[in-house]
């Protein structure tokens, strides 16, 4: 990210953080929803018996402000299908989810049958609310462990915290993802919104959530890390 993009990203985060702080207490941390119906991204053949990739995340994964077919999990499905991979993608994104809420949903998310890969996209809401970094790390670690216990490969996507909680928090927050990737020997996308964050024409009006064009870039970022995992699993299966 360029310095100007960083500044715009920081300003957007600060504004969104302020909105969280001004909201009534009961709205700041909504109660985790019961396991919602996962959104099976439309696949060319619609075959539910295909091996699945579950994307567990928050509004960035759910595609807040976009049509379901425009969210990056749907774009991952398009890439898989176009490249001839017989896989399906399940969008398990829920707007507002923190790492704690994701932990409550992970068993449901990966127990649907045929799940081979978990794309883990959580932490943005922890950072926006200034929640303890140690707790976020503990929650993400538990999600990874649950997946690995069930022989589900994990792709971790990193996020950045807003700067208003101080440089120590920001650095510690960023380091969580690197530490977890190293500890559990899993691939890491260092920053999900790389080349998108802070770029006005790639984001919606809130400056946080990617627009249609931004989602295309996010999908490409994730795809570059996801494709080798799928290739490796296909090779081992054959």
What does this structure look like?
- With 238 residues, this protein is an alpha/beta fold.
- The chain contains nine helices and six strands; from the N terminus they run ααββααβαβααβαβα.
- The chain has helices at residues 3-22, 25-28, 59-62, 72-82, 99-110, 124-129, 133-149, 167-184, 212-237, and strands at residues 39-40, 52-57, 88-93, 115-121, 153-157, 188-189.
- A six-stranded mixed beta sheet has the order 1-3-2-4-5-6, with helices on both faces.
- The radius of gyration is 17 Å and the shape is globular.
Which tags fit this structure?
about 240 residues, alpha/beta, Rossmann fold, six-stranded mixed β-sheet, 9 helices, 6 strands, about 10% strand, globular
Mean pLDDT: 87
Query: CATH topology, what is it called?
Result: Rossmann fold
Q: Percent of residues in helical segments?
A: 40-55%
Q: Low-confidence stretches at least 5 residues in length (pLDDT < 50)?
A: 17-37
Brief account:
With 238 residues, the chain is α/β, with parallel strands linked by helices. Helix content is 50%, strand content 12%.
SSE map:
Elements lengths: L2 H20 L2 H4 L10 E2 L11 E6 L1 H4 L9 H11 L5 E6 L5 H12 L4 E7 L2 H6 L3 H17 L3 E5 L9 H18 L3 E2 L22 H26 L1
Parallel strand pairs: 2-3, 2-4, 4-5, 5-6
Antiparallel strand pairs: 1-3
Helix pairs in contact: 4-9, 5-7, 7-8
């Amino acid at each position: 990210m360029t310095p100007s993009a960083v500044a715009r990203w920081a300003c957007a985060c600060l504004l969104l953080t302020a909105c969280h702080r001004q909201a009534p207490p009961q709205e700041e941390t909504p109660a985790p929803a019961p396991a919602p119906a996962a959104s099976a991204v439309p696949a060319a053949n619609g075959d539910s018996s295909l091996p699945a990739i579950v994307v567990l995340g928050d509004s960035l994964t759910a595609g807040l402000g976009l049509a379901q077919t425009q969210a990056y999990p749907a774009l991952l499905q398009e890439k898989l299908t176009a490249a001839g991979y017989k896989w399906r993608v399940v969008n398990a994104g829920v707007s507002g989810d923190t790492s704690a809420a994701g932990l409550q949903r992970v068993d449901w998310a990966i127990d649907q049958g045929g799940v081979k890969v978990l794309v883990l996209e959580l932490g943005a809401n922890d950072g926006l609310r200034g929640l303890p970094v140690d707790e976020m790390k503990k929650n993400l670690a538990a999600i990874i462990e649950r997946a690995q216990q069930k022989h589900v490969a994990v792709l971790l996507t990193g996020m950045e915290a807003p700067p208003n909680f101080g440089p120590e928090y920001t650095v510690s927050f960023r380091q969580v993802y690197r530490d977890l990737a190293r500890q559990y020997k899993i691939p890491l996308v260092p920053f999900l919104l790389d080349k998108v964050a802070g770029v006005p024409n790639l984001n919606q009006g809130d400056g946080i959530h990617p627009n249609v064009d931004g989602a295309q870039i996010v999908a490409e970022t994730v795809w570059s890390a996801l494709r080798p995992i799928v290739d490796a699993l296909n090779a081992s299966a054959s």
